[in-house]
Amino acid sequence: MLTQSISIFTSVARRLITLNFKFNTQEGKDHLMAPLLEVKNLKTQFKSKDGIVKAVDDVSFVINKGETLGVVGESGSGKSVTALSVLRLVQSPGKVIGGEILFEGRDLLKLPDKEMRKIRGKDIAMIFQDPMTSLNPVLTIGRQLAEPLMTHLGLSEEQARKESIDLLKMVGIPNAPERIRSYPHHFSGGMRQRVMIAMGLACRPKLIIADEPTTALDVTIQAQILELLQQLQKETGTAVMLITHALGVVAGMADRIQVMYAGHIVETATSEELFANPRMPYTMGLLKSIPRLDETRKDVLHPIQGSPPDLLNLPPGCPFVSRCEYAVPASETVVPQLRPVPIRVRRGAYTTSGTATDSGTEQVLEEEVMPENDYDKHLIACHAEVRMGDPATRTVDEVVAS
Length: 402
Known about the structure:
The chain is of the alpha/beta class. Helix content is 33%, strand content 24%.
């Protein structure tokens, strides 16, 4: 919790400086070009004896080259199923029933199984939640690292062994030549996660999907794993889709963030915009439930009341309506669609006049504007027009009328 709080309210400031530089360089311009991965209207469902579970319902997003996209939400919101759908790893009774998954312009849903196997591990790799269940307990670490190298890159057994040693060194595992002969149970949780990262990076993929890479690790090891991911991403230029329920993780790592709830994307924006100006009540609830170290007053945390809806019996309107303090009549009957809202732009700052005992305070000048490019857009799926800390509720029509 301490690491989360520090990450959210100190790392965002560093990201502002980084992104301002980033978008004035060629690297930043590349973000506005053709995306590496583009998902359009993805729908994944699971059939059960009680009905159909709409685990992912009409989800669309893009990931650009070298970018980190953070995906956050409560358990059961559809984050992991979205990732598995991208790699076509959803198992029966689940099935992708609609949409497009364009990777470098090719629709992965239309590729033959043989072609898809060439992409998995080589162009798109995945780091799973629990390395102990993802690694094969009866095979050595070296054997498991060598397999994708021999399969996708055509390396010989000796070449794959040398490359496996280099990979373990790269992720910070000491005595790598000896450790490749070890089995997964010989490693600690943090070291097993490092092995999973090494496997993900083995073929130098263009996209890594990291599904809760720090789950069940203590905060010290969490920080080490996230720092390692950032460092390796910087060195290799790999894009990352980072799935997590911890806002502190994405605050320090993600360029953009999308918030998921009940199989839908309910808010998406750049990292600094989402934390500075959340507009979806669910996102606000997530932020209010995390303690802040930058406040002198110790406010009571405000948990989100209630539980996520049953995906077998979703309400006819907004899926968050039963837990939302800003619900309006339309929320009961109409499913909100993603729509753009203004973003906050800093135009300058000034310092107020000081006194003999007070040097003055800095005042930031901001204004709200509609972004000119798609990358900076702030989208929300909400009928109400609210802001963090605003007790008033206005509908979209009322805002337009005013």
